[in-house]
């Protein structure tokens, strides 16, 4: 049976086609590799990959290229990949679980909760700073729980969830400012943390958080089919035998783990969890089995790209990456507000 070229192209570009999905994920993976390589080279001091390979292969710890690669560029690139992937996946999960296209870790207060607990740990228990991913996770979980509780008691409409998140975020931010005012010498840098930056990140600060992020992404991928069922609606999911309350809690905990772990070393970077899930959904559709891994890849690529811009736009001066993301994310959030339509879940 002969298939016309036009029909073959249509099958290939079908978002439900396995071939298209594999190609999409492969393309996103290639983009991650290219941007990561550029991140290792770009900055106030440009280093080519050949010099990096030569310095690392020879093991010359006194070589300038080796020191820049091992102690600055490599930790920073890994941090950006992990934080971006974590926040993008957390945003996709929150948008599905809360049935709200505007939900993201920074908008509904999850980042603010993680930031508050991290600041408190840094100010009151600096000797335990290595446990900041755990503190950030607890703060993110508390914030997500508070938003969900308030929204469920007041109708849980789209706008109610957003307004509840804004209110919770404002309260938590006020507590954060209070702690920083009373403890100005806290080990977590005020400006870099509150805006979001990968400057000064080390491998030690990324290790534990990185394990938590990989675990959280793995849980979301394994349970992605159940997330599809939950997205059908409370009554439909219940009729199919799903314990919706239990799964909703598991997904909220996973999103809190992802967002909290990222915030623990990157600070309060925002809008990754808003922009990337919408872009991934536009490319791959709403099947979370593809959406979650695609968000992990595109989130990492987007964050690394923004970090490269933050380093090179005004070199040798450097912008916090949170500023670059705010310039991109703010207009996008306004765009989403303007195009919201009643009755649509993820427009």
Can you describe this structure?
The protein is mainly α and 347 residues long. The chain has a single domain (35-339), classed as ABC transporter involved in vitamin B12 uptake, BtuC (Orthogonal Bundle). The chain has 15 helices and no strands. Helix 10 packs across helix 14. The longest helix is centred in the N-terminal third of the chain and has 34 residues, at 64-97. The two termini are 39 Å apart. Residues 5-12 and 342-347 have low confidence and may be disordered.
Helices and strands, with pairings:
Blueprint: H1 5-13, H2 18-41, H3 49-58, H4 64-97, H5 110-124, H6 132-153, H7 158-182, H8 190-195, H9 203-222, H10 224-230, H11 234-239, H12 244-266, H13 272-284, H14 288-312, H15 321-339
Helix pairs in contact: 2-4, 2-14, 3-4, 4-9, 4-12, 4-13, 4-14, 5-6, 5-7, 5-12, 6-7, 6-12, 9-12, 9-14, 10-14, 13-14, 14-15
């Amino acid at each position: 049976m002969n298939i016309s070229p036009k029909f073959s192209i249509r099958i290939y570009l079908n978002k439900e086609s396995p071939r298209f999905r594999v190609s999409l994920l492969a393309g996103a993976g290639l983009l991650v590799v290219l941007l990561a390589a550029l991140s290792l080279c770009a900055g106030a001091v440009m280093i080519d990959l050949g010099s990096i390979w030569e310095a690392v292969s020879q093991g010359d710890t006194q070589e300038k290229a080796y020191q820049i690669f091992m102690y600055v560029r490599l930790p920073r690139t890994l941090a950006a990949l992990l934080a971006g992937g974590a926040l993008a996946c957390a945003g996709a999960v929150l948008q599905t679980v809360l049935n709200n296209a505007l939900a993201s870790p920074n908008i509904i207060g999850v980042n603010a909760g993680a930031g508050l607990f991290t600041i408190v740990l840094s100010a009151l228990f600096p000797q335990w700073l290595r446990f900041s991913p755990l503190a950030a996770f607890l703060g993110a979980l508390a914030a997500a729980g508070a938003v969900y509780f308030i929204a469920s008691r007041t109708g849980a409409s789209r706008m109610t969830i957003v307004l509840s998140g804004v209110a919770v975020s404002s309260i938590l931010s006020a507590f954060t400012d209070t702690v920083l005012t009373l403890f100005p010498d806290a080990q977590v840098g005020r400006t870099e943390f509150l805006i979001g930056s990968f400057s000064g990140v080390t491998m030690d600060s990324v290790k534990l958080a990185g394990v938590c992020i990989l675990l959280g992404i793995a849980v979301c991928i394994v349970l992605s089919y159940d997330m599809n069922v939950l997205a059908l609606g409370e009554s439909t999911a219940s009729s199919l035998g799903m314990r919706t309350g239990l799964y909703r809690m598991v997904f909220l905990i996973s999103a809190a783990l992802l967002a909290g772990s990222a915030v623990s070393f990157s600070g309060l970077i925002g809008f990754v969890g808003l922009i990337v899930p919408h872009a991934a959904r536009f490319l791959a559709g709403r099947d979370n089995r593809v959406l979650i891994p695609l968000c992990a890849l595109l989130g990492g690529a987007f964050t690394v790209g923004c970090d490269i811009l933050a380093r090179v736009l005004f070199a040798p001066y450097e912008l916090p990456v949170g500023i670059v993301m705010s310039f991109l994310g703010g207009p996008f959030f306004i765009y989403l507000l303007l195009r919201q339509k009643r009755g649509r879940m993820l427009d």
